[in-house]
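seq as requested:
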Amino acid sequence: MTAMTMPTDSDTARLAETFRLLGDPTRLRILFYCLDAPRSVGDIAESLHLSQSLVSHHLRLLRSARLVRGDRRARQIFYALSDAHVSGMLMDMAHHVREDG
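struct tokens:
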């Protein structure tokens, strides 16, 4: 593994904003729910017992941070994690918090 160079101030600010967004438990629940398959707003809301407006609000923030992407299918938009980096980070952090020690 090669060492990464120090991020620029701009990149550090974007990273901090991303981690701030990930600090919300509802957003994390939405991300984990979308980990295995694309989900509609209605499906997310029903499964996580949230209002559709609240889910839409969180998805808008997650999408602006490029953590999720939306794909339109007919009259619905299905949301999935934006790429393997996001899913890998979530899985790594979930494993990290479950470790003993």
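The longest strand covers residues 68-73.
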